[in-house]
């Protein structure tokens, strides 16, 4: 966290092992209120494993996760009430319509004035003409927008986004990035994973480079490449993924 | 436990039922066919057998009660399987929803869906085949209650089996009531069974219901204490089934199965 913002997410020495395989190796970081933090790394680096542990759907082998100071391991329900997530690999049930899915999750999150909130999100994510369409019949981009609308239902203080724009066209992706920035300005802390380095540079206040379950680099995505003698964040990403030793990082 | 989260599970099931004949029809179609089939069998047996014994309350009543039990169990498992079929576990369990709230939602959904089947069976059996529920008296209520409780227990247990063994194990849970029925003495007294089967019958709550039902139909003495034992056993099984489900869920969270639940990922 670059300034004195209150922490909405605190990850302390978090680790996950499957037998001898270490997926996440004792990582620690904080996401502050209103901060957008990019979690970057090659496939298999441990990004999704980290997000699953934050969401309480995967038990850590070591360490702890706290959302707004509430420990996820011991008070999962309370902690997750102020968080939400969207992931490209977790589409909402395809046998429910857009509106039904939003109503269902609004009840789960105990959203007040749910009908009004759902209408706001349907308008915000341009879902009006799909409101009575089953989610399984939507294109992947449309499903992504429904997933994002669901992720905003409870006005989360912590938002976890796992490749949220992966299946969106450039125009929609730009709109979503603008929307996420607007949400962050209102005080929501965002943990964002993406393989799109242009997007990360544009959106994130800070990035964490993850490789083999460890955080190898951390900093401002606009300054980090120059600090390590690289032209762009993409070049730095490739170096971190393939030749971390050349940066003296391992 | 938050009622809004429990109701969310019920609401989801309601949404799925609405406008889906494939989901609505099984709520009453198969039980109606059972009642019609066994209604005629009972009538035929009445026409050829000793006139002092009425097969309608003994056989048709047994079918009605057994089908109710099966529907309760399937009400729980079908609601659970909707999340398996739509691969919804990650979305569901990454929310504030507690396991107790989820299971309560399954139970309330099952109560609603099995009640529909029960009403259809009661109407058909009494209107078409003259099954008089007065012959059971007020004991019909505890009979249904014991079967309901055991149906819930078996439904939770079956859901835990699928959660642990994967979607492919779905085939295993549907015949569970049929596997239990020979031991439960649905159509014959438990005393008919060999000793080892009687031992199993005595730990199955439905056996107390069907023994009681036959005692009433035959006009012999009925032990309320045995029915109470059946209810106590059913409650015990609900506690055990819930503990088993919670344990399986913990295993799935520890191993990461909840996040990547699919036929290919569970072994």
What do these coordinates show?
- The complex is a heterodimer of chains A (250) and B (267).
- Chain A is built from nine helices and ten strands.
- Chain A is an alpha/beta fold and 250 residues long.
- In chain A, strand 9 and strand 10 (214-219) form a beta hairpin.
- In chain A, helix 3 (98-108) packs across helix 4 and helix 4 (114-124) packs antiparallel against helix 5 (140-152).
- The longest helix of chain A has 16 residues, at 170-185.
- The model of chain A has no long low-confidence stretch (mean pLDDT 90).
- Chain B has helices spanning 3-17, 21-48, 55-85, 89-93, 99-127, 140-165, 170-173, 176-184, 195-201, 205-218, 224-255.
- Chain B has one domain.
- The longest helix of chain B is centred in the C-terminal third of the chain and has 32 residues, at 224-255.
- At the A-B interface, helix 2 and helix 3 of A face helix 1, helix 3, helix 4 and helix 11 of B.
H/E element string of chain B?
HHHHHHHHHHH
Oligomer: heterodimer
What would the principal axes of the Cα set say about the shape of chain A? globular
C-alpha Rg of chain B (nearest Å): 20 Å
Largest interface pair:
A-B, 31 and 30 residues
Helix content of chain B: over 70%
Question: How would you characterize the largest beta sheet of chain A?
Answer: 6 strands, mixed
How would a crystallographer describe the biggest sheet of chain B?
none
The count of domains of chain B is 1
In total, how many beta strands of chain B?
Answer: 0
Average the pLDDT over all residues of chain A and give the rounded result. Answer: 90
Query: Can you tell me the residue ranges of chain B where pLDDT is under 50 for at least 5 consecutive residues?
Result: none
Unreliable parts of chain A = none
The assigned CATH architecture of the domain at 7-82 and 156-247 in chain A is: 3-Layer(aba) Sandwich
Q: What portion of the residues of chain A fall into strands of 2 or more residues?
A: 25-35%
Q: Which radius of gyration of chain A do the C-alpha atoms yield?
A: 18 Å
Structural class of chain A: alpha/beta
> What order do the SSEs of chain A take from the amino end to the carboxyl end, as H and E?
EEEHEEHEHHHEHEHEEHH
* SS field, number of helical segments of chain B: 11
């Amino acid at each position: 966290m670059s300034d004195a913002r209150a922490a909405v997410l605190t990850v302390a020495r978090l680790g996950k092992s499957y037998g001898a395989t270490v997926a996440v190796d004792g990582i620690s970081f904080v996401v502050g209120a209103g901060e957008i933090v990019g979690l970057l790394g090659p496939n298999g680096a441990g990004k999704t494993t980290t997000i699953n542990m934050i969401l309480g759907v995967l038990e850590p082998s070591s360490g702890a996760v706290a959302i707004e100071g509430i420990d996820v391991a011991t008070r999962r329900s309370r902690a997750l009430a102020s968080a939400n997530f969207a992931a490209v690999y977790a589409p909402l049930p395809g046998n429910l319509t857009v509106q039904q899915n939003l109503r269902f999750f609004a009840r789960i999150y105990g959203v007040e004035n749910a009908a009004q909130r759902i209408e706001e999100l349907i308008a915000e994510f341009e879902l009006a003409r799909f409101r009575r369409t089953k989610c399984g019949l939507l294109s992947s981009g449309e499903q992504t927008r429904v997933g994002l609308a669901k992720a905003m239902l409870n006005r989360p203080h912590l938002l976890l986004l796992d490749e949220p724009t992966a299946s969106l066209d450039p125009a929609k992706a730009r709109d979503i990035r603008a929307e996420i920035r607007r949400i962050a300005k209102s005080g929501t802390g965002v943990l964002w994973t993406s393989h799109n380095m242009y997007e990360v540079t544009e959106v994130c206040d800070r990035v964490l480079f993850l490789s083999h379950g460890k955080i190898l680099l951390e900093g401002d995505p606009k300054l980090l490449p120059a600090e390590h003698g690289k032209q762009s964040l993409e070049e730095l990403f490739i170096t971190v993924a393939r030749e971390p030793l050349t940066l003296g990082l391992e | 436990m938050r009622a809004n989260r429990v109701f969310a599970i019920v609401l989801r099931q309601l949404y799925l039922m609405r406008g889906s004949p494939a989901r609505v029809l099984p709520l009453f179609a198969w039980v109606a066919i059972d009642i019609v089939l066994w209604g005629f069998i009972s009538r035929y047996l009445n026409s050829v057998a000793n006139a002092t014994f009425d097969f309608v309350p003994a056989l048709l009543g047994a079918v009605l009660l057994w089908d109710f039990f099966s529907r309760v169990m399937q009400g729980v498992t079908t609601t659970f399987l909707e999340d398996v079929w739509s691969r919804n576990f990650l979305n569901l369990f990454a929310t504030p929803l507690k396991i107790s709230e989820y299971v309560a939602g399954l139970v309330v959904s099952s109560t609603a869906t099995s009640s529909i089947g029960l009403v259809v069976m009661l109407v058909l059996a009494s209107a078409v085949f003259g099954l008089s529920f007065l012959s059971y008296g007020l004991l019909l209520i505890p009979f249904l209650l014991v079967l309901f409780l055991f149906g819930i227990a078996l439904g939770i247990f079956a859901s835990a089996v699928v959660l642990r063994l994967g979607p492919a194990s779905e085939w295993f849970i549907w015949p569970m009531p049929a596997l239990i029925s020979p031991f439960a003495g649905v159509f014959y007294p438990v005393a008919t069974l060999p000793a080892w089967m009687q031992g199993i019958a005595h730990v199955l709550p439905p056996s107390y219901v069907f023994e009681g039902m036959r005692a009433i139909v035959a006009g012999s003495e009925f032990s309320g204490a045995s029915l109470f034992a059946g209810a106590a056993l059913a409650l015990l099984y609900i506690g055990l089934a819930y503990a088993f489900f919670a344990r399986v869920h913990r295993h799935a969270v520890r191993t990461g199965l909840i996040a990547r639940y699919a036929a290919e990922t569970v072994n």
